Every structure is written in structure tokens, then in C-alpha cells.
Amino acid sequence: MSVLLIEPFYGGSHKQLMDLLQEELQEDCVLCTLPAKKWHWKARTSALYFMQTVPTSSNYRILFASSVLNLAELAALRPDLGKLKKVLYFHENQLAYPVQKCQERDFQYGYNQILSWFMPEHKLARLEKVIGVKRNGDAYQSEGLPGQQESRAVMKTIDAHPESGLCEPQPGLCTTQHEGLPSPAAAPVQAEAPERTNPCQGEDKQHLTFNLSNILSGLDYQQRPLHIAWPHRWEHDKDPETFFKVLMKLKEQDLPFHVSVLGETFSEIPDIFSEAREVLGSSVLHWGYLPSKDDYFRALCTADVVISTAKHEFFGVAMIEAVHCGCYPLCPKALVYPEIFPAEYLYSTPEQLFKRLQNFCKRPDIVRRHLYKGETAGFSWAALGSKFRSLLAAEPREDL
After folding, report:
1. Phi-psi bin for 222: left (phi > 0), alpha (psi -120 to 50), beta?
2. How far from each other are the two terminal CA atoms of the chain, in whole angstroms?
3. Are 263 and 191 in contact (CB under 8 A)?
4. Which helix (H) or strand (E) holds 174?
5. What Rg value do the Cα atoms of the chain yield, rounded?
6. Which run of H or of E encompasses 224?
7. Using the 8-state DSSP alphabet, how is residue 335 labeled?
8. Which helix (H) or strand (E) holds 85?
9. Is the omega angle on the peptide bond into residue 184 within 30 degrees of 0, that is, cis?
10. Closest by alpha carbon to 65, among 18, 28, 29?
């Protein structure tokens, strides 16, 4: 139990990072968590909770936590933990997180991160390697039905298990020692979120299975309409308004396309989703979160283009996953995307995004023949695991 892992919001990429580290460290760690709900409440009060619940041990050497935790408060409340070497992982920057209304910004969450932040360290294998869908000339062959597994945890190798093993880059990693990780550093992909519900999912799950079966075995591959994927959380910071307005414009021009709107839902869903669901109608292949990782990767593997319209992104696991599954990415020429994706995959305005998709709808063969010109191997656990082990194996210094 030399490594103490603390996660106040144990869901999504937060959960998968902790699960991966726990799997790799095995008997050398202890994991303390809170459920993935009421995010703001966890940011305000989790230090007090963990002060009372984290077991004391003389074996702890390192504390690894996400920045949802107010680390400064925990260190003050638990002096024994304050003496440890501390590694704080930032999944996002609360000072820059977009708000729906200017008066809604609560400085407390960014302030928590400032208090906790010390000395930051700056920054398919395609279908058959992902879910057992093999390409046969210009067609796809499905090898069985997708499994009903409970999570999408990152695994060590994509060849050994139908998962991507993708990790986040170093800008999210801060440590109290000068030693750092060469960019990029690891974080995981999506995980189940039991509290996030989608009232439409039951009906559309059947819709997905039926349509994808037809796509995989029926229509000629090159003659199918363009399949667009949007695999993001249903929240305003992912800017679904821009995405759906572009798709509605394609629909108005009677351009053929299919869309899979994936990702998790929270208690509040932007109104644009219900409006878009009605307008897009038969163009929708799937609508909502897929608890089975096999279903999720199967949807990505049958998609041609993956879109991001995010207004706040420090890596974008879902985009890298989709590229690994063979999708052509289209991302804003902003945020972290220019650091990861070559220029041809970036757009500057919604109008540019529309024009790219307009051309792809008319000629889907363009993207289906395209070979991605960037690199994704550097984000895998195979590439980054040794760096994490090295970081978490370092001995604490006396001056910490």
C-alpha cells in the first residue's frame, strides 16, 4: 500500500485512470473513491470526507489524486498525508471552463486547483485490432455480436483485448517534485456512468443493432451514406449547438448521411438534443450512451468521420479513440487539437466544418480511402506505462 489513490469523482476518464493504475500497481496501492455524481459538491467537500475515511498507514509514500480534490485542504486536515510525495492530475482547468452565463462562474473550483497546484510539468491498428470487425476488400465482416460488458477500462494492449488503451497527454499532470514525464502522459478513455441516464436509449439500442447489422452485411460499403460520429458528453462545453446546426443544414440540403450521437448524459441535457433528434429523424443510427464497450467501439468502427465542436478540451480521448477505430477527424483549430492533429483535420469556423461535411456527404469514398496522417501510438499505455511506474516508484524527499 505504498501508493494512495484518491478520486472524488469516480466515473468516466477519472475512473479509468484510477482503475488502470490500480491494475498495474496491484498490491502496491489502495484506492479511495466517491461516486461520480454531484461534481461541485465533491470539489467543495471531498477533502473533509477523505480526511475521515482514508485509513492511516506508515507504508504510504505517494498520494495520487485528481484535481477534483482540494489537495491543500486534505494536507492540512491530515498532516500524515501532507508529508507524502503528491501527484495531482488535472483533467481540466476550472479557471477556463466555459459557463453558460457569465454570472454563473463560481471561482471556488478554480481556486481549489490553484491551492492544490504546485510546480506543474508542461506537456486501425484499425478495425480488426479493436472489436473483431475485419475489412474484406471494400466491405466489413462482423465477427459475432458485441459483448455486454460493464465498462470501457483501458487495457494494456489493444491486440490482446478489444479496447483502445489510449491515454491522455502530460498537460494534465502536476507533481510536487521536479521530475516530470516527457509528453504525453496517461489517462484513460470512457467508463460507465450509472447515474447518467438517457430516456431514449432503450428504444434506440434496438435501432442501432438493426441498422448496424444491415450496414455491416447488406449495403455495398462504398455506396452507404456518410456516417458521422459525435462521441462526447451531452453538455454545453462540447458545443452540441454548433454540431447539430451543421447537421441540420446538411439535412436541409437533402445530403445523405447517418449520425451516431454517443456519449454520456447528465441530469441536465441541452435543449438542442431533443430538437435535433426530431429534425434528423431517419438519419440517426444511434442516439445515446452505450454501456457496452464493444457496442461503443463497433459504432466508432462503422463511422467514417468523427467530429469535435468542443469549447473546452485539454486532450480529447474520444477523438483519439475514434481515429484509432478508422474515423477521419474534424476538430476546431483551437484548444489542444493543433498539438495532436495535422492541419488538414482542423477547421476554423462552423462554415468550414459544413463545407467539409458537404463534400464528404457527396463523396464518402474520399474519407473511406483516407489513411490518417498523424500518430496515436504515443498515447498508448504500452508507450507510457513505464513513465508512470517510474513516477509512482520514486521515493519522497524530506523537504516535501
Report:
1. alpha
2. 20
3. no
4. strand 173-175
5. 21
6. none
7. T
8. strand 85-89
9. yes
10. 18
Per-domain boundaries in the chain: 3-118+382-393, 127-152+194-369
> Parallel, antiparallel, or unpaired for β 173-175 and 85-89?
antiparallel
Among 91, 87, 7, CA closest to 42: 7
Instruction: Note the pTM of the prediction, 2 decimals.
Output: 0.67
CA angle 163, 208, 251 (to 5 degrees): 110
pLDDT at position 258 is: 97
HSE-CB at 297 with a 13 A cutoff on CA atoms is: 36
> What is the per-residue pLDDT for 315?
87
pLDDT at 220: 55
Q: Which residue has the cell 464528404?
A: 360
C-alpha cell at 248: 441540420
Q: For residues 378 and 365, what is the distance between their CA atoms, to the nearest angstrom?
A: 29
- All 3 cell numbers of residue 329? 477527424
**DSSP of 8-74, one letter per residue?**
EEESHHHHHHHHHHHHHHGGGEEEEEEES--HHHHHHHHHHHHHHHSPP-TT--EEEEETTS-HHHH
**Number of neighbouring beta carbons within 10 Å of residue 376:** 17
Question: For the chain, how many helices (H) and strands (E)?
Answer: 14, 13
| Low-confidence stretches of the chain (pLDDT beneath 70) | 1, 96-97, 99-107, 109, 111, 113-222, 394-400
HSE-up (13 A, CA, CB side) for residue 320: 29
Q: Which residue has the cell 485509513?
A: 55
Fold of 127-152+194-369: Rossmann fold (3.40.50)
**Rounded Cα gap, residues 164 and 155, in angstroms:** 7
CA 340/CA 328 separation, integer angstroms:
14
